[in-house]
Amino acid sequence: MSAPVLLLYATVSGNAEALAHAAAAALGARGRRCAVENAADFPAGRLREFDVALVIASTWGEGELPPEAAEFGAALAAPALRLDALRFAVLALGSRSYRDFCAGGRRIDELLAARGARRLLPRRECDTKFKTDFKEWLGQVEVALASSA
Ligand SMILES: Cc1cc2nc3c(=O)[nH]c(=O)nc-3n(C[C@H](O)[C@H](O)[C@H](O)COP(=O)(O)O)c2cc1C
């Protein structure tokens, strides 16, 4: 059996977590097995267990990943980690009231690509009202998964 779709979130106040669970529920309703994981306790090497990773990450501090996900970000920066078999899409949460808009999600997106993983979709960056972005992103993910299944 193929691996489940990974929904990996990096959060402080829970938005990314809620969206990861909502995405898993929506994809699950369409027959896709999903696994939801928190980057705070997810070793980056485990990405090799999956074919598809959907990452929802917020930005905190001054353009940083949520502090609990910092270790995951650092591990993803190791050139020895190769993720050539992985396809991914990143939904970045942030607020345009900050200078480094969505920098945390951007960092994850760039690091995954640097590790050899291939984008299913371009990164989507969301301001604080992210409902519509999320719906559209998820629709695009479903189309991309269906056309590359
Ligand atoms: C103290 C604080 C710092 C933040 N820093 C940034 C930032 O540097 N860049 C950005 O785009 N958004 C920033 N945000 C906005 C959050 O990323 C945004 O509210 C997001 O939806 C939070 O998602 P989460 O609940 O999954 O952590 C910040 C929010 C707070 C409260």
What do you see in this structure?
This protein is α/β, with parallel strands linked by helices and about 150 residues long. The protein has a single domain (about 5-145), classed as Rossmann fold. About 35% of the residues lie in helices and about 20% in strands. It has helices at about 15-30, 70-75, 105-115, 130-145; strands at about 5-10, 35-40, 50-60, 85-95, 120, 125. Strands 1, 2, 3, 4, 5 and 6 form a six-stranded parallel beta sheet that branches. The chain is globular, with a radius of gyration of 14 Å. The model has no long low-confidence stretch (mean pLDDT about 95). The structure holds flavin mononucleotide (FMN). Flavin mononucleotide binds near residues 13, 61, 95 and 100.
What would the keywords be for this entry?
6 strands; Rossmann fold; binds flavin mononucleotide; 149 residues; alpha/beta; 4 helices; six-stranded parallel β-sheet
Topology:
Layout lengths: L4 E6 L4 H15 L4 E5 L13 E7 L11 H7 L10 E7 L9 H12 L3 E2 L4 E3 L4 H17 L2
Parallel strand pairs: 1-2, 1-3, 3-4, 4-5, 4-6
User: What is the class in the CATH system?
Assistant: Alpha Beta
SS-based structural class? alpha/beta
Q: What is the count of helical runs? A: 4
User: In CATH, what is the homologous superfamily?
Assistant: Flavodoxin domain
Q: Let me know the largest β-sheet.
A: 6 strands, parallel
Strand content: 15-25%
Order of helices and strands: EHEEHEHEEH
As for the number of domains, it is: 1
Mean pLDDT: 97
Brief account:
With 149 residues, the chain is α/β, with parallel strands linked by helices. The chain has helices at 15-29, 70-76, 103-114, 131-147, and strands at 5-10, 34-38, 52-58, 87-93, 118-119, 124-126. β4 (87-93), α3 and β5 form a beta-alpha-beta unit.
